[in-house]
Amino acid sequence: MLSQMTEVLRPASLAEAAALLRRPGLRALAGGSELTGGAYDPEIRAVVDLSGLGLAEIRVGADGWHLGAMVTLAALEAEESLRLLPGNILGRAAYLSAPRTLRNAATLGGTVVGSSASPELATALLALGARVELYNPSPMQLPLAEVLARKAELFPGALLTAITLAPPAVNARAGLARVARTPADVAIACAVALVEVKDDRIQEARIALGGLAPAPALLAAAMQLAGQSFAAPAVTRAAETAAALASVSDIRGSAEYRRWIAPVLVRRALEEAR
Amino acid sequence: MDISFKLNGAERSFVAAPGESLMALLRRQGLVSVKHGCEGGECGACAVLVDGLLRPTCVMLAAQAAGHELTTVEALGDPLKLHPIQQSFIDVGAVQCGYCTPAMLLATQELLVANANPTEAEARECLSGVLCRCTGYVKPVAGVLRAAALLRGEAVPPLTVTARGPLTPDGAPWQGHGGDAAAPAGGPGGGSGGPGATGGGDGPAATAVADRPLTETDLEVREGLVQVGTAARKLDGPKLASGKAAFTDDFEQRGMLYGKLVPSPHAHARIKRIDAGKARALPGVHAVLTHQDIPRITYTTAGQSWPEPSNHDARSLDDKVRFVGDRVAAIAAESYELCLQAERLLEVEYEVLPAVIDPREAMQPGAPVIHDEPDAVGFAIYDFNRNLAAQLHAEVGDVDQGFAASDLIIEGTYEVQKQHQVSIEPHICVSWWDEDGRMVVRTSTQVPFHVRRIIAPVIGLPEKRIRVIKPRIGGGFGGKQEVLIEDICCHLTIATGRPVKLEYSREEEFFAARSRHPQIITMKTGVRRDGTIVAHEMRVLANTGAYGCHGLTVQSNTGVKVLPIYRAPHLRYLCDTVYTNTPPAGAMRGYGVPQGAFAAESHIDEVARALGLDPMDFRAKNWVRVGDVNPLSKNMNEGKEGFSQELYSCGLAECAERGMQSIGWREKHGRRQGSGSKVRGVGGAIAMQGSAIPGVDMGGAMIKINDDGSFNLMIGATDIGTGADTILAQIAAEVLGITAEDILVYPSDTDLTPFDTGAYASSTTYISGMAAKKAAAQAAWEIRKVAARMLGGVSAEHIRLAGHACHTPDGRSVTLREVALNSLHVTDQQQIMGTASAVSLKSPPPFTAQFAEVEVDTETGEVRVLKLVSAVDCGRAINPVLAEGQIEGAATQSLGYAVCEEGVLDAAGRHLATTLRDYHIFDATEMPAMETILVETHEPYGPFGAKAVAEIPVNAIAPAIANAVADATGVRIHRLPLTPERVLRALREAAEAGTAD
């Protein structure tokens, strides 16, 4: 709730926006779905409207995707080129992240670094090895994993401008598994696997888990699955390590429950990717 | 700041505050189709098309709209020229309360522009961003598909339902588990006749019509029903589908202030010092009220008939707070934002007291006493020193002896949670002084007359100086059977002299409104080997929270409507309702029955299993039949002695038969299906409710003719989105030989309509319907007399009203317009009118059998409900489409009760689920297949054979789902909701103990 806010600032350049965001009491306004609906925050004096900065573009090239931070979840869902990703993994993740009307409002950037969306989108991007372009205060690129890990330190001061994805290997496959109270509820936990498969064996696997901890995280043990068959005991053992990531207890489920289901989600995501 | 955008086709410029939401700006411009439902964008009621895409405007700054193109429902069409989407929604019955309708219509528009030929899945997807608490989405989805067909230029079939012929009191008989699976598809023919069913024994020979006065039964039996039993369009449909100003928030008063309550941060504390000086000094703040500023009047917020059978333990403001969210102070200021600022300036010093959150600890020695104030008054059996809000004890036969005589005794304990009503329109009230110095209160309530009477002493005005107006209501579900905020709104108007609007936020709806009572229920059943129930006992610990509103009566219903559905010579019901330092519970659809039905109907399946019987066969062996008397009905009725209730109509057997056929019971039950980690099962349960509180609920109706032969119908009955206005118009129209559209219904204004107890206890169709019917019959009699005089040679008794005219047996006629003109202007002038009221000592129970098919994921504990079947005996369905809408909506609420809806508190009593993100209600995409079966019977005491329909279908879905989960997994879960964690935990424990079968 921004009722006390006195100004909507409309910077003309990214540099100007980045500079504004370093001032106390200012927040980036993207879609507004989280910022404007949240609890009364007397700290917020003004918002920095990012809508005029050309950040709502999706660019596709040989080096992959450049997804502007202001692209809405609905636009991600509808983007034809993203359906080239194995299992349409990003489109599916965007769909699962918020209810329909909010997907027409919520943006990629706000969803990934915000706190109200279901965790699928950030989890999928993590598995896809996404990188984040931001001004902090000068332009830089960081792996998404690092941005998520340093979220509290980076924001609200930094300006997230885009997320980039390299094209996955031609033999990459993906799987997404989630557990929720009902199909349209926020996920209790989810897993996304991106696996390069050769001869029904895992060549390389990246597995991300969302909902277990305050931010989605990669499963370290997945890196050691190269050369394993999907049914190998090593895969089961790697899935079991996901339990250790679970720390969150909330109204949807306890940390203990999350420890129970984390390996199941990993196995299912891998199974779908197989 | 200046903002320009295109709004409904015109370039417009506005001045807006930087922090103003787009919702606020649009409403300020009079575009009141944009509704406030939450503050998180989840409910979608405020959504509009932004560049063709549906976006919630509560989470969008007005500034963000600059340069865009916006469309609201106001641009779609209006009542005089409805858009095909609007017309389709009205035609299929998709408009119930109408609060979310504008957003649903825009969602449809968004879809159909891009996709002229959507599938049902696409229709569901388009509606999924708009949450509806009334319909269960069945009819809105049908509305989308019908609109699509219309816009493609296709011919769509007319939507007509004709009334079914004469009905029997008991429907088709039980076939039994091994019996013929073919259930009757249509209605039973011929009538066996209950009391009065054939007009006091007169034979139904059509030739006799002209020889004696017509009775209502003649209308029904011989001529067929013309209005009753048809799918008359909802009379308020056009204005609701057009987003016209119809709800409390849609009318503004000049100089209106905004109100806000200051909530307690503590579960239990005494206010040692409160200083509002700085808050009052803030410019634009007009009043800050604390307990020091208003008289201390003790009352109950429960909206019930006088004397209210709830403990009088509440005050507008008190020097003690009893739950997190309890009232500390109230503020009125020129904007809501100023209220928020003033709230931060209020200085309060608390003496924090020990709190009791767990109801099991409430009556333990040494527990903190929540109502230690001397002016609290209990109603029946209570003990404030032990936090006992109410106690119930009823026994018939000798239960201990019954258990001793049983072959098998099964006992089990069940627990049900705090469920919230979640009407999409929050509680909202506007109060002002009128030109006569009277307090006018426009409020979103189910009980306008109770509001006037209950707030009168609290605000220090006599009833005659208070007028309560009920406009359209955006859903109630029991939450608005509470005099929740009207008192404080009036206090603020008195303090400031200004109109004040007080509206709950969605967060307040969760932490400071009401909920279904949580209960812990122990069932004990003694049976003989042959499956006869000998003794049946229910012991309940109920949690009423910090105040005792509905604490006695909800729990009374748990006993009186749940236990006696089975014949047993020995019955016992014991209940303690305790106070805790948690948000108060109150009335919610079903009113104690869903809690009891979950326990009892889960338990019945367990008893059947122990006996080796099919659970539906076991039910059939023991369930009640026509002629039975409810043995608890005399013991418990609103905390005093009741009236004996004999059963005159009961379609339970047909409900069960047809429901079992629909779910595939005989093929599926007991034959677990599935592969890998997914297992499927089916479950069923039955329930009964009542129709009104016998001897208490009363409704009045007045009807008068206009020059053109149309009528005004003034009723106290309170349509809260159910379609009650339409139902009552249909009943009156049937009597007068006209259509519902010829009746202008004016409901629920304490100055202008007769008294009615209000919209609760499933009373409106039954009680208010009888009043409307009687009033119409009086007017009809006056019409007949005038017509006989005008036509000559015929006595009034033999005049027949049909087709807007009065007919003689020999074929002459005069129109109603001619009768009206003659009567008002020409001969022996009089206003033809009728005034009547209705009350009943009988509360005929509607019945249901409900079934579920589920799939359980045994590795995660997720329960996915694949299909729900609701077979409901509501007597004659006055409007089958509206009745189906009630059933579909109730089943959906009950589905949420079963799997996800839970008001969760932490150890300090703080509510943890205060958004629609965390408190999840079902959206259109995740609904199971829904089948609704109306099993119509003839209830001789109801108007045209009708019983109630609103509450009955909310009762048996949750136990049906729990029974289906047990059928699928072999594991019985005794606690709602069946969350993934709860289910997986139970499966793991059963696996460890080896108890799954």
Can you tell me about this structure?
The complex is a heterodimer of chains A (274) and B (997). Helices cover 28% and strands 24% of the residues of chain A. Chain A is of the alpha+beta class. In chain A, the strands form 3 sheets. A 5-stranded antiparallel sheet of chain A has the order 4-5-8-6-7. In chain A, helix 3 packs antiparallel against helix 6 and helix 9 (233-240) runs antiparallel to helix 10. The radius of gyration of chain A is 19 Å and the shape is globular. Chain B is α+β, with helices and mostly antiparallel strands. Chain B contains 25 helices and 34 strands. In chain B, the strands form 8 sheets. A 7-stranded mixed sheet of chain B has the order 8-10-6-17-14-15-16, sandwiched between helices. A 5-stranded mixed sheet of chain B has the order 2-1-5-3-4, with helices on one face. In chain B, a hairpin with a 2-residue loop joins strand 23 (673-675) and strand 24. The longest helix of chain B is centred in the C-terminal third of the chain and has 28 residues, at 764-791. Chain B starts with a strand and ends with a helix. Chains A and B meet through strand 3, helix 4 and helix 10 of A and strand 4, helix 9 and helix 25 of B.
The geometry of chain A reads as: globular
Calculate Rg of chain B over CA atoms. 28 Å
Specify the helix fraction band of chain B: 25-40%
Number of strand segments of chain A: 12
Summarize this entry quickly:
Chain A is of the alpha+beta class and 274 residues long. Chain A has 10 helices and 12 strands.
Topology readout:
The complex is a heterodimer of chains A (274) and B (997).
Chain A: E1 7-9, H1 14-21, E2 26-29, E3 46-49, E4 58-61, E5 64-68, H2 73-78, H3 89-97, H4 100-103, H5 108-113, H6 120-127, E6 131-135, E7 139-143, H7 144-149, H8 151-154, E8 159-165, E9 172-179, E10 189-198, E11 201-210, E12 217-218, H9 233-240, H10 255-273
Helix pairs in contact in A: 3-6, 9-10
Chain B: E1 2-7, E2 10-15, H1 22-28, E3 48-50, E4 53-55, E5 69-71, H2 84-92, H3 101-114, H4 120-127, H5 138-151, H6 216-222, H7 237-241, E6 257-263, E7 269-275, H8 277-281, E8 285-289, E9 320-321, E10 327-333, H9 336-345, E11 347-352, H10 359-362, E12 388-396, H11 399-404, E13 408-416, E14 428-433, E15 439-443, H12 448-459, E16 466-469, H13 486-496, E17 500-503, H14 506-511, E18 519-527, E19 533-545, H15 551-562, E20 570-579, H16 593-611, H17 615-622, E21 629-630, E22 645-646, H18 652-663, H19 665-668, E23 673-675, E24 678-688, E25 698-705, E26 711-715, H20 724-736, E27 743-747, H21 764-791, E28 800-802, E29 805-807, E30 813-815, H22 816-826, E31 833-839, E32 847-857, E33 863-873, H23 880-899, E34 929-934, H24 957-969, H25 980-993
Parallel strand pairs in B: 1-5, 6-17, 15-16, 19-20, 26-27, 33-34
Antiparallel strand pairs in B: 1-2, 3-4, 3-5, 6-10, 7-9, 7-11, 8-10, 12-20, 13-18, 14-15, 14-17, 18-19, 21-22, 23-24, 24-32, 25-26, 25-31, 28-29, 29-30, 32-33
Helix pairs in contact in B: 2-5, 3-4, 3-5, 4-5, 12-13, 15-16, 16-17, 16-24, 20-21, 21-22, 23-24
